[in-house]
User: Fold Lysine 5,6-aminomutase subunit alpha from Clostridium rhizosphaerae.
Amino acid sequence: MGSKLNLNFELVEESRKAAQNIALDTQEFIERHTTVAVERTICRLLGIDGVDEFGVPLPNVVVDNIKNGNGLSMGSAYFIGNAVVNTNLTPQEIALKVSKGEMDLTRLQAADIFDIKLKINSIAKETVDKIKSNRANREEYLNRFGDKQGPYLYVIVATGNIYEDITQAVAAAKQGADIIAVIRTTGQSLLDYVPYGATTEGFGGTFATQENFRLMRKALDEVGEELGRYIRLCNYCSGLCMPEIAAMGALERLDVMLNDALYGILFRDINMKRTLVDQHFSRIINGFAGVIINTGEDNYLTTADAVEEAHTVLASQFINEQFALLAGLPEEQMGLGHAFEINPELKNGFLYELAQAQMAREIFPKAPLKYMPPTKFMTGNIFKGHVQDALFNMVTIMTNQKLHLLGMLTEAIHTPFMSDRALAIENARYIFNTMSDLGEEISFKDGGIIHNRANEVVEKAYELLKEIESIGLFKTLEKGIFAGIKRPIDGGKGLDGVVIKEKEYLNPFIELMLNDKANKGV
Assistant:
């Protein structure tokens, strides 16, 4: 189908080329570096789990041991593989010895590199096969139950207690939700370790732990069997442990992951060097595991004006698309983000929202776009809020958005009650049904407000991308072009966890995951 907006697709392709150059330029830095989080992720993927007697996660213990011995530039896989060759112990047994002070990985005799690679690749392949099996299980569920046509109804649970979250998630699934997002507790993105075990306390959300993932996945599978639907599970692999949480999600069959370095840089003051390196490995894992990533462009509009700065959202979507492709993520797994955040007092604001959403759909036709509800201008007036959410629902169905995060009429008042969620689902289902094919029935006036708005945003995004291409992404973030927030290149949290790789650096999972057919979108 042709463009309803008469978009200048030559300019779109030029924008894409500029974004590709931006990503490739940044990728040169990424390829030369590793981080403590990447190395902890490799430990987890090699089977290291649990905590020591002080509650410190064993992946942290192992990586700290290697870092203290100035060995991190070779990679944790090298030292663990060397220890396996030397001792014939498993990675988990080696980690326990390190935690008790019985082994220093950097002081063991160096084995032949061929033997190390052979051993570590054998162990890594077991984990890769498990993740492939999880992906196959998801496909089996979808083949058996069928997948939903039209938008996925995406709701959140955020009690702080995983068991209460499960109660609410099961209720939401029975009310009609398709995706359950377990909101992560406030501040977890700034922890440089992953908490362990099931958790029952959290402020504004629940800790992301592998056990919590396992418990929620099991509950959603059980209610899915009862309902005859596959219920997708979403969590967050942003922050200082981005790739670790991606690995945990892959091991426990999560389906959707919030996964965006720019969000962490801008809104959590995480060092840009650190999180861009972390993002690349996390996206390789998500791509291989069949996980849809959600990017965080919607957040720009919580601090910047949604009319004046709409082009920054599109520019960021272009850049995120290119970073995802470099990590082997197919377009069908790119939940590029945007939001319904224009001031409701603006005349013809709905037309601008419609233009922006239709533009995103036409520019990224294969992407399961993630569309966020109005939050910035929700006032506590639940009646007006419900109407704002209804208009948001209308744009979704008219422009074929896919991951539709439901707006709540009590936004800006409290964490939603189950009854609030039920009303939100009812509202969306009514509009999606009664307007199901409206988008196919309508066209937009040539030279009208919607056409002009969409093309203005494309032109501004192109100009911005050419500017970023000329100065590089790092300097762009220093200048505060996205969300009006400036971040220094050597500032923020986590910089001390960035390390330059040696020539012999070893990470078996990149090659195994990128070269496997399961990651080719088939």
